[in-house]
Amino acid sequence: MPDERHNSWLKDVLGIDTEKYVAALSAGAQTVRTAMVRGADAAEDGVIAGAKAVAGLASKGLNAIEDGVLATETAPYEAAMKSLDAEIKHVADAGLDTRHYAAQEKSIRDAYADAIKIADKPTRAIALGKVVLRANQAAADAKADVARVSKSAVEGVSAAVTHLRDGAKALIDKLPQANKQKPELAKRLSELDASIAAVGKVDDRAARAKQLKQISATADLLMDAAVRAAGAQDSDAVQAVYSSALKDRYGFEITNPSGMKNTHLDKVYQMFEKVPETDVVQGKLKTLTYQPVDEKGKKNRGAAYGGAVIEMGDYGDEKWPYKDPKTGADAPVNGFSISTLHELGHSVDDRFKIMDENQGKPGGGGWRKETLEKVADAFIGQFKAGAGKKLKIDDKQLGDLVRGALGGAGVKKPDKMSNEDWAVLQPTLEICAKRRNDKWPWGSPHEIGGRAYHEAYENDWVSYDMAVRKKALTVRDYQWRAPGEWFAELYAYSYFNSKPPPPGVDGAITAYMYGGKAAAAAAPSAKK
Ligand SMILES: [Zn+2]
Fold it and tell me: Contact, 180 vs 225, CB < 8 A?
């Protein structure tokens, strides 16, 4: 049986409950493995074989168990990657863009290569265990999504094309004979009908998917032109056409519990057409919903993502203040459209775990998780080394004041402090108070030792690398709120403008944005 040292190694290092582990040992090899990967789907043959090896080693002492655990990681890893590879091949066979899947695969392979190099066995076991979890998750996600996306690429797009074609025809038919655009639109409609008939005769699904993508774009342009000619923008009939097209193509729900008017489903369709099919048809995007009122009871001018739901507020035609990352020049864009892509970006990040893996890299923003205490220490350090050198104040009082300002207690002169001393301290406390998340601190970074610190969300503190912010890769200050926003803003800007993200963004991240091919090209499964 496992000895004391082994018990604490299992508990402290692997986080495995010893009693459960021992029970699992006797209950059978597969259970052991399941306990070890803590809930990951572990049904592959390789896993069972590996677990049997561990069970066999259990009585042979700590070192053998460590080696056994390490050995068991290889089989499930290989099994999961093989399964992921097979799914990527299905995506390619469906005539679809594989690069986001391939980028995820490469990221996992890189993590595995790093993990097996770790000399310390328990550390290596943890790292490998995490990679196995990621590989299993990626394979399971792919299994769930790829069949859907393949169907979307043919049957889904076909249905969407029919909705758009019929919608356009209804509008064109209703145009008065005198309307100058009517003949031209009617001609485009008959051309569209001809291409729909032609694609119906293509047997190869991949070839059909590729042609359908083109036809869908043509159908959307025709629908858009017909809407303009008829002056039917935002009409219920037009929104209904796009609602059907979106649901049938991508297979997600659209709900609008308040019956809000500004649904802009035409814009949603146009934005989703800009990204790979695999970004929209995936398990982390299940619902698009509308919420016209925010939590304070005011008009909701924003959007949000969470739990596979994109929630859009009440947008008109307002533009949002983006800027060209290279020149810094204003480049305002339609707020609803870019917000749709921004929220989709959150969902893609959630699906492929992009920032989880890359946020600490310089090309990922150089993000770090912080606590209020650590942020306070950074401010205290900077103050003592600078303006505060001459100030006589005890550490406890200074600490309380800084932590209070950061924590929302405000900035108030202590009764016994002289006006001169207060004049030295107050500016630092004012800056601290402005690090709170409701003060838009990402718009006014304050640098300490090369980093900027703030509260991203309530009680959620972060810092990032100011040297990265000084590079030309900011599309909006909001990007610097948190790692997820950093990704979502760059994703949205890149796809909205059909432009690769700015240089300086890490290749593992640009792979998920417009034009990002670097990571995909390196993945074995992409070479087809
Ligand atoms: Zn966001």
Answer: no
Task: Determine the 3-state secondary structure of 452 from DSSP.
Answer: strand
User: CB-hemisphere CA count at 13 Å for 91?
Assistant: 28
Read off the pLDDT of residues 468-492 as tens digits, 9 standing for 90 and up. Answer: 999 999 999 999 999 999 999 999 9
* End-to-end CA separation in angstroms for the chain: 50
Rounded to the nearest angstrom, the distance between the alpha carbon of 479 and the centre of ligand 1 is 9
The predicted structure's pLDDT at residue 234: 80
Question: Taking the model in full, what pTM does it have?
Answer: 0.85
Q: How far is the CA of 379 from the centre of ligand 1 (A)?
A: 28
Note the helical H segments in 353-449: 354-358, 372-385, 395-407, 419-433
How many other CB atoms are found less than 10 A from the CB of residue 398? 20
Q: How far is the CA of 16 from the centre of ligand 1 (A)?
A: 35
CA of 345 to the centre of ligand 1 (A): 8
**How do the domains of the chain map onto residue ranges?**
4-145, 252-363+478-528
Residue 344 CA to ligand 1 centre (angstroms): 9
pLDDT, tens digit, for every residue of 238-280? 999 999 999 999 999 999 999 999 999 999 999 999 999 999 9
Task: Give the distance (Å) from ligand 1 centre to CA of residue 471.
Answer: 22
